[in-house]
Structure formats: structure tokens, C-alpha cells
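Sequence only, no structure available. Ideas?
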Amino acid sequence: MIFVIGSTSRLAKALMAQYQEKDEICAVSRDVYASWAKEGGDVLVYAFLKERASKSDKIFVTAGVLDPRVQYEQVAKINVTLVEHILKAAWMLELEVISFGTVMEKQFETPNNYIRTKEILADHVSDYFNRGLAVSHFQLHTLYGEGEPSSFMFLGQLLQALRNETLFEMTRGDQKREYHHVQDDAEAIRLLLKSGCRGVMAVSHGDSYSLAEIAKHLFTSMNKEHLLRVGRLPDLSEECYECRLEKTPQLESFEFRDTLPALTDFVVSLCQSN
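Reply:
I predicted one. C-alpha cells follow.
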């Protein structure tokens, strides 16, 4: 059986689609797992899984707080404590745990609340991996697909400006980023797990573009380049500009979507459906 914690997320939906034909899926409701992040939550996790799980069953933990503006304590409660309690129960029951983070881990001297919690989580996963637990922590790039992008994300802000036909002011946008369709990453993760990959690892296709290149392509594709103002805002004081990773070796033969055409199709479809 496969247990999914945070089954309403875009990543969870894509992962469940990958496994639903061959595996029984238990989408754990938020009403159940919300108490798992509290003090003593590891006992509740253990009781829930002991009654339902069999040895070597998988637990995908896609629940998480992505918005870095949320207070650290609230972010850490879900991104760290919840997963810690699941790891502890899984260790005792010999279950497999798959958690998710970001390629931005270890890239900043002063990371935001989201990145900081994912760095802590990756360290915990590494500890359990070294102790012999079948556990993985996949560091992901920016995901799109399966619904609207979050409004606090760069792509979500672009979409709002395109829909409303309002000016979009941004920095020089020199930051290099990979954008991944969530369905591609879900399939890639399934293949990585099937091949026996465990531990902490990045899921990369190696095809990065600057934020300015992405913005110019999207606005030009929709004949709205007159609304884009690159370089109008000051650059951030601390930013990761060269987030360039080689394609994950174990995925060398896997074909990800071409970034700019796929992003354009995604944004155009959302604009047309509004």
C-alpha cells in the first residue's frame, strides 16, 4: 500500500496518478495527520500505521508549507516535526518514507523559513538513511501544472499580470532556474525509486533559464511584451543566481518536457480558462 500525506497538493495528485493502477493508495486526510505534528504525535502515527501498513509499504509526505512569509514555527511544525514523527514510526515498522525538499537547500547563508526547514529535514533523512531506513528526500526545482501556480511564486505573479493585462515590473531577472512539469517529476520519482535510488538527491533536467528569459518568452508569446518591465525593481540583496545542476544521471534517458514551450502552453491554457 502507498500512504500519501498531503494528498491535495499538485505533487501528490501527480504521484497518485503514477501509482494508482498497480497499488492501493491511502490518502490520509488532513483531519487525521494534523495531530501528528503535535507533541506526542509520533505515537499517533505509529498507531495509525501499525493498524494499516505492511512491511515495506511506502509513505509519500507531500504535505508542507511553501510560503516563506509564514512564521518559522508554523512552517517547521509541518515541514520538519510532522515528517520527523513519521520517520520515527516508519523506523519501528520498517516502512519506506519519501519526503521532498528544494534544490535551494544549502545555497544561502541566511535561508528563508521554507528553505531552512527543508535543510533541517534533509539532515534528518540523511541520519535515518545512514541507520538503514529506506528513506528518500528528493530536492525539487520549481513545479508547475496540475492547477494554478501559487500567487506568491514568480509564475503566479506573471500569470496575474497577463490575465489582468497590467504592467509587470521585475528585477533584472538574472537568476537561473529550472521549471519542471509536476507530471514529469512524478514519473521521474517513480523511476528513481524503482531503480533503487534512496537518500538525498536532486531531480534535475539541466535545462535552466533566467527569470528574465522566462518572462520575456511568456509575454512575447501572448503578444503582451509591452506590459513587461525588466530591471525596474532593485535586485535582491541575497539571491542564488547560478542554480545550475546537471541532469540527474539516473534519469539520463528520461525525457522531460521542453521548458519554454511547455510553460507557454500551461500559462496560455490558464489564461484562456479564466
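The chain is about 45% helix and 15% strand.
Hope that gets you unstuck.
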